[in-house]
């Protein structure tokens, strides 16, 4: 079988780096992009200088302020970041059309057949890193390997501005020593469950049988079983259709009043309706996310019989789901409403639509 | 009730009425057939409350009476019975002893008083058809009825009477099938519209025979269809049918004779390259050729063509392959006329004997 050449590019401290580039006085200083201190919002990106103090993304800004009191806290300028993201994407497209963005600051590239006929994926990765730096003044880290999982893990190995290559020959020894928490797709909670059963690294994970993995982790078990053996058949798919549309809000104060909670869920439902209508989507599954005041969060989900995008239906479903949480008994810090399970797209992008009579 | 009946006749009668009986109904008695024995006639009736079918057969009746018996069980029995005659004997507890050949069964029934009584209605329109003719009309249009019952009025067939012409229409909003027929003797009543539910129309189509006549009576909310072998009464769908006339283009620029058999053969052939129901087939009319092209990412692609008399400007047009094939599958005519204006306006297909089909093409976004 043909060995694929996959590159994963991950921008280094993307938001914070753009702020530092645009305002040279911020260079070398602890920059924290996100909400402003005193509010209950969270960190979006922290510069490497701030990370030394233990600040990381998704941390409440007030906590970041305690860890890094001299940090410079900046609001999010999403327009500017999107513009940079688009410039970087254009660079990728010079090499291949098989570009799958994972978020605003990361993407997979399949360069097995590339437009410049460069034989080595490593050379391409180096060239892309150089071009990103010269054209945007930002640094990126790159991972090169033969599947998406390994490329992703590789890009995280030497940050910032690093390049890591995992060849099929190196893959086994690389995976064996990889700590369980660094496998892409294994989050904090799953990692903890693995540690409890004595799985701390890739080599430990390899010893667990497929049937045990599947019975403990369901469908994800098969994914874990495969990736630890370097098997990942996912292909780089450009323009992946959105999988979900949602809105969440961290509340100014923790609340436990049901009417207030429902009011917020109603607001979120209507916002989600608007987002769905903008993208002309309708979905079957409604998910309610609740984070309690102790930061534990849960989600509750229900699938409906038909595709919906109405705020009222979303609200009705979400408020039913609320009964399955401890809302009212425990204080709530964050609420989120998401709709997923969209209509599959027609197989051809330019597939004609059936016209209808004007009845 | 006690009687003797020919097994074959009983079986035929059971097959006529049992089809409408659902598996789960709110009223237990709806799972049963009403048997009424009177004079020398045994009458069987089934209903789902919307639709009621009644049929009668000859029987040697020793004791008149009524009862109800579980339809599906009885049908299974009679299908498997070996013998010529069936004897039915019902006691006052509605236990019916049923015998055929050497087989002996007792089926538990329900009181005939529980069985819903027929709804009387005042007919506002009456008409008569040859059974064959009504059967052909239903066959030519009923596939176009909307299967989505969210728009109730489209989930049935329109019978629109105007100046002694009956127009039967079915549409799902994407294509429309219509048959016009001038009515003669046996027609009376005022002009107006009635919408027959699709389920009822399908039952009527199933029950109609080759010879004989069917008398139709249309009321405000009910209608009946009566032949020598059955009487079917149905609720009508209430509401206004959309103005279907407005979707028929007033004029066409291009008229093309299509050889029906060849067209359908090539259409079905090329459609094999398609994978799913959202698929479309591309037609190209150019220089005395009609070419077909279909492609899908899963399967591959296919091309073919037929020669037709066409020298006008080139037209590319895409269709849902089933919507395009349906009128050809349900027409008996050898030659069909296709009328078009361009690649994105409604296209009309005429198959003779008052048949008209209008189909919306598919258009690139």
Helix-strand blueprint:
The complex is a heterodimer of chains A (about 350) and B (about 375).
Chain A: E1 6-11, H1 14-22, E2 31-34, E3 43-46, H2 48-51, H3 61-67, E4 72-74, H4 78-93, E5 99-103, E6 106-110, H5 121-136, E7 140-145, H6 148-155, E8 163-165, H7 168-177, H8 188-196, H9 202-206, H10 210-217, H11 219-227, E9 244-255, H12 258-278, E10 283-292, E11 297-308, H13 311-322, E12 332-342, E13 353-354
Parallel strand pairs in A: 2-4, 7-8
Antiparallel strand pairs in A: 1-6, 1-7, 2-3, 5-6, 9-12, 10-11, 10-12
Chain B: E1 2-6, H1 7-18, E2 32-38, E3 41-47, E4 51-58, E5 60-63, E6 65-70, H2 71-80, E7 85-90, E8 95-100, E9 103-108, E10 125-130, H3 131-141, E11 156-162, E12 165-171, E13 175-182, E14 188-189, E15 192-197, H4 198-207, E16 213-218, E17 222-226, E18 231-235, E19 254-259, H5 260-271, E20 281-286, E21 289-296, E22 300-307, E23 315-319, H6 321-329, E24 335-340, E25 347-352, E26 355-359, E27 362-363
Antiparallel strand pairs in B: 1-5, 1-7, 2-3, 2-6, 3-4, 4-18, 7-8, 8-9, 10-14, 10-16, 11-12, 11-15, 12-13, 13-26, 16-17, 17-18, 19-24, 20-21, 20-23, 21-22, 24-25, 25-26
């Amino acid at each position: 079988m043909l060995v694929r050449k996959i590159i994963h590019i991950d921008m280094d401290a993307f938001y914070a780096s753009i702020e530092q580039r645009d305002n040279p006085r911020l260079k070398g200083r602890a920059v924290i992009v996100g909400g402003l201190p005193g509010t209950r919002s969270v960190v979006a990106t922290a510069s490497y200088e701030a990370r030394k103090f233990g600040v990381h993304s998704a941390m409440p800004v007030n906590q970041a302020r305690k860890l890094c009191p001299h940090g410079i806290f900046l609001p999010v300028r999403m327009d500017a970041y999107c513009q940079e993201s688009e410039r970087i994407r254009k660079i990728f497209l010079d090499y291949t059309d098989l570009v799958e963005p994972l978020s605003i600051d990361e993407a997979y590239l399949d360069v097995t057949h590339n437009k410049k006929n460069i034989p080595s994926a490593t050379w391409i990765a180096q060239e892309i890193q150089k071009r990103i730096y010269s054209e945007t003044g930002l640094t990126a880290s790159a991972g090169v390997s033969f599947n998406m999982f390994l490329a992703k893990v590789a890009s995280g190995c030497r940050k910032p501005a690093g390049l890591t290559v995992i060849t099929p020959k190196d893959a086994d020894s690389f995976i064996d020593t990889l700590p369980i928490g660094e496998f892409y797709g294994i989050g904090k909670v799953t990692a903890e469950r693995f540690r409890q059963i004595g799985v701390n690294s890739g080599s430990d994970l390899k010893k667990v049988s497929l049937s045990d993995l599947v019975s403990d982790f369901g469908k994800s078990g098969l994914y874990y079983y495969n990736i630890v053996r370097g098997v990942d058949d996912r292909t780089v798919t450009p323009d992946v259709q959105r999988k979900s549309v949602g809105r969440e809000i961290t509340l100014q104060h923790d609340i436990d009043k049901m009417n207030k909670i429902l009011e917020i869920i109603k607001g979120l439902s209507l916002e989600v309706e608007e987002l769905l209508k903008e993208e002309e989507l309708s979905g079957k599954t409604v998910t309610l996310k609740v984070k309690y005041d102790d930061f534990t969060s849960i989600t509750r989900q229900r699938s409906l019989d038909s595709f919906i995008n109405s705020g009222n239906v979303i609200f009705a479903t979400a408020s039913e789901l609320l009964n399955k949480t401890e809302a009212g008994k425990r204080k709530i810090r964050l609420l989120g409403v998401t709709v997923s399970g969209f209509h599959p797209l027609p197989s051809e992008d330019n597939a004609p639509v059936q016209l209808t009579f004007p009845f | 009730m006690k009687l003797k009946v020919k097994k074959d006749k009983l079986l035929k009668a059971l097959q006529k009425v049992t089809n409408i009986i659902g598996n789960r109904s709110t009223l237990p008695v709806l799972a049963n057939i009403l048997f009424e024995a009177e004079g020398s006639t045994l009458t069987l009736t089934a209903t789902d409350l919307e639709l009621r079918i009644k049929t009668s057969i000859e029987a040697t009746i020793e004791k008149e009476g009524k009862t109800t018996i579980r339809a599906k069980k009885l049908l299974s029995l009679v299908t498997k019975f070996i013998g010529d005659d069936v004897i039915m004997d019902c006691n006052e507890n509605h236990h019916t002893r049923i015998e055929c050949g050497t087989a002996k069964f007792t089926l538990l029934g329900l009181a005939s008083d529980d069985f819903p009584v027929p709804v009387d209605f005042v007919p506002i329109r009456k008409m008569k058809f040859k059974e064959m003719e009504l059967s052909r009309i239903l066959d030519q249009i009923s596939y176009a009825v909307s299967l989505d019952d969210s728009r109730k009025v489209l989930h049935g067939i329109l019978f629109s009477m105007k100046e002694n012409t009956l127009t039967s229409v079915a549409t799902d909003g994407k294509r429309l099938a219509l048959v016009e027929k001038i009515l003669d003797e046996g027609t009376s009543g005022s002009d107006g519209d009635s919408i027959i539910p699709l389920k009822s129309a399908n039952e009527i189509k199933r029950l109609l025979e080759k010879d004989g006549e069917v008398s139709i009576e249309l009321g405000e909310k009910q209608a009946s269809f009566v032949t020598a072998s059955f009487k079917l009464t149905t609720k009508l769908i209430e509401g206004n049918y959309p103005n279907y006339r407005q979707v028929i283009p007033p004029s066409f620029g291009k008229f093309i004779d299509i050889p029906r058999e060849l067209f359908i053969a090539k259409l079905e052939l090329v459609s094999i390259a398609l994978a799913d129901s959202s698929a479309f087939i591309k037609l190209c009319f150019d220089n005395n050729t009609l070419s077909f092209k279909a492609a899908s990412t899963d399967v591959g692609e296919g091309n073919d063509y037929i020669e037709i008399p066409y020298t006008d400007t080139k037209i590319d047009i895409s269709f849902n392959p089933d919507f395009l094939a349906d009128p050809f599958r349900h027409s008996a005519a050898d030659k069909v006329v296709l009328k078009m204006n361009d690649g994105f306006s409604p296209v009309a297909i005429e198959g003779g004997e008052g048949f008209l089909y209008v189909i919306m093409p598919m258009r690139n976004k």
